[in-house]
Specification:
3-stranded parallel beta sheet; WbqC-like family protein; WbqC; 239 residues; alpha/beta; two-stranded antiparallel ribbon
């Protein structure tokens, strides 16, 4: 089972769970960077009220709007590191799970000292959260794989390149793919949707960090594992 998704900064729980359900994550790094998406920002919740705030990484696009994700650069890496650490601490310092998470966050923060590539940080932030959940899948970047042009054709080719017979796709992606192309290629197109109760409240809008620091790693991992079983059996929602 394969998930294909752009590297997002501390991704939403719905995105993280989709990747967690897959055996292979193809990091889609050779498509256009989109400023209004989650590629360089994450929406954080608050522990004791409903307010949310954005955590953003100022990003320079060398080729303007045509800049690919892999070519985007952090405008101020050192300042961004301090800001990320400060905002996360401000939002979640009173969580009983914060001390452990702050320690696990350290390698990601240290990465700002060695790279100015936005995608390096966002990919690493996703892998950090996947590691916390115990994911043991494989990561491949789309820029290292052969794929033809065209939205659906590219996805089909990427699945073939990693030997996947199933493509797990979010509801947003289903709006622009041609299911028959997957069927013709012998690839099962599997819809991925998360519930909206319990651990999953806010999963489509808030960074997974919020659930991890409200519910704890164990609870989120248990929910993600259970949902993965249902997806692999062909169902998106719990019965």
């Amino acid at each position: 089972m394969c998930a294909i998704h752009q590297p997002n900064l501390l991704p939403r729980l719905s995105t993280l769970a989709k990747i967690y359900a897959a055996d292979v994550w193809v990091v889609l790094d050779d498509v256009q960077h989109t400023r209004r998406d989650y590629q360089h920002r994450a929406r954080l919740g608050a522990l004791h009220h409903d307010a949310t705030r954005w955590l953003s990484m100022p990003t320079h696009l060398p080729n303007g709007r045509a800049t690919l994700i892999r070519d985007a650069r952090l405008a101020e890496p050192a300042l961004t590191r301090r800001r990320m650490e400060g905002i996360l601490h401000e939002q979640y310092r009173t969580s009983p799970f914060w001390p452990a998470f702050a320690e696990q966050l350290r390698p990601l923060l240290d990465l700002f000292d060695t790279t100015d590539r936005t995608a390096d940080i966002t990919e690493a932030s996703t892998l950090l959260l996947l590691d916390l959940l115990g994911w043991r899948g494989r990561v491949v970047r789309s820029s290292n794989l052969p794929a033809r042009a065209g939205r659906t054709q590219r996805l089909v080719d990427l699945c073939r390149a990693v030997g996947a017979d199933t493509y797990v796709c979010g509801t947003g992606g289903l709006r622009y793919v041609a299911p028959t192309r997957f069927a013709d290629a012998g690839i099962d197109l599997r819809c991925f949707v998360v519930p909206d109760t319990g651990v999953w409240v806010g999963a489509r809008t808030l960074s997974a960090v919020h659930s991890l620091l409200v519910r704890g790693v164990e609870a989120v991992a248990e929910a993600a594992t259970g949902h993965t079983r249902r997806v692999r059996l062909g169902g998106a929602f719990p019965s």
